[in-house]
Amino acid sequence: MTAYQKVLVGIDGSKQSAMALKKAIATAKRNQAQLYLLSIVNGPASGRQSSFGFLDQSAYQQNTTAMEKLLAQKKNEAVAAGVSAVATKVLSGNAKVELSTGFVTREGIDLVVVGASGLNVVGRMIVGSTTAYVVREAPCDVMVVRTDEDNQPLAIEKASYPKM
Asked: Which option is the CATH number for 6-145: 3.40.50.620, 3.90.1150.10, 1.10.10.10, 3.30.70.120?
């Protein structure tokens, strides 16, 4: 069995992605693999304006800056845990596409680590589950993290919707 060489973890600031990072760090260490921390800010690919444009360019830039800071912190966490090669990237685009085929194909990723979906049934029906899409479309192995470091079930964050 060949060891994983390039491990990608999707980071969005949720509890699920934090736990996915912990398991990705352990996997990267065990395999002496390069670890990629990727965050995708919803928007047109490469930050280009679409025909609709960004509703608020400053809000988009604030989100990008916040994710860059978060990834820098997570990179420090991975390095402190003993992963020698860690790369970070914030992209503009669609998380489903980048985590399944876009970034994965461009970088030759051989393992994607993602947290289980935090959406409820209605949310998954409306926007779909990024995790389910990645599992279905990725050309490489996908690890879906549902448990904590002790393999105990992880309390899933649910999106809350206003009462009508």
From this structure: 3.40.50.620
